[in-house]
Amino acid sequence: MKFYKYQGTGNDFVVIDDRDETFPVSQKLIADLCHRRFGVGADGLMLLQNAEGYDFRMVYFNSDGTEGSMCGNGGRCLVRFAHDLGIIGDSTVFIATDGEHEAKVSPEVVSLKMIDVNNIEKTESYDFMNTGSPHYVEYVDDLENLDVYAKGKAVRYGEPFVSKGGTNVNFVEVVGDNKLNVRTYERGVEDETYACGTGVTACALSANSRLGFDKFVDIKVVGGNLRIEFNRTENGYDNIYLIGPAVKVFEGNI
């Protein structure tokens, strides 16, 4: 089987051209392929499939082999993959588990339009919202020395989230006007990842809601830099774009 490896700010993925829909989906196979010691190694696996009325369908699996919710950096990488295959030009409309997405491609970045967000659950200590995947956002003072794995796991498997299927957990440090540093514990990977696209999207919208950061937020993650652009509406947010690099690493056969 031929596979491709792509990464976006260190979020890495095994990518399969499955337009003939012959990939033998199984949780064990996907987990084995994503294993960093015994497989290719990745945060997740994506299938590119045909979809009537769209340029392609994105099917995303977590590294533990379970089918996942929307992955923003994965979406950007799959758009780059479709562009590399010649399926699309400099723009596309595709379908994913959370609905329709638009994207634009340049040599430097892929800009992915995220779903509208109309509800932020605000508490004294954190914000919670769904940006295609569920995200908890907490502000901290010393992000560099934070035990993201231990704190993230406690939130992910704690109430009220564990009874709702768990959540991704983001820790945010404000470093300037419209600038954040973010680290994320991802469910399905069950560890800290180098980046999380839906996560930084949630952090940017939280920063607008709490701090007044407007129009865009520049975010540094472990694997690089991302930008979120958005429009505030009476009911929430629309025209949300996740912008950053998406790069082919290698291809091979397994």
UniProtKB/TrEMBL annotation:
Keyword Transferase applies: no
Keywords carried by this UniProt record: Amino-acid biosynthesis, Cytoplasm, Isomerase, Lysine biosynthesis
Recorded GO MF terms: diaminopimelate epimerase activity
Amino acids binding substrate: N11, N62, G72, N73, N168, E186, R187, G197, T198
EC primary class: isomerase
Record keyword Membrane present: no
Gene Ontology CC annotations of this record: cytosol
Catalytic reaction(s) noted: (2S,6S)-2,6-diaminopimelate = meso-2,6-diaminopimelate
Origin superkingdom: Bacteria
Pfam family, one: DAP_epimerase
Record pathway: Amino-acid biosynthesis; L-lysine biosynthesis via DAP pathway; DL-2,6-diaminopimelate from LL-2,6-diaminopimelate: step 1/1
Cell location: Cytoplasm
EC number: 5.1.1.7
Site (Could be important to modulate the pK values of the two catalytic cysteine residues): H135, E186
Subunit structure: Homodimer.
Function as written in the Swiss-Prot or TrEMBL entry: Catalyzes the stereoinversion of LL-2,6-diaminopimelate (L,L-DAP) to meso-diaminopimelate (meso-DAP), a precursor of L-lysine and an essential component of the bacterial peptidoglycan.
Protein name: Diaminopimelate epimerase
Biological source species: Arcicella aurantiaca
Name of encoding gene: dapF
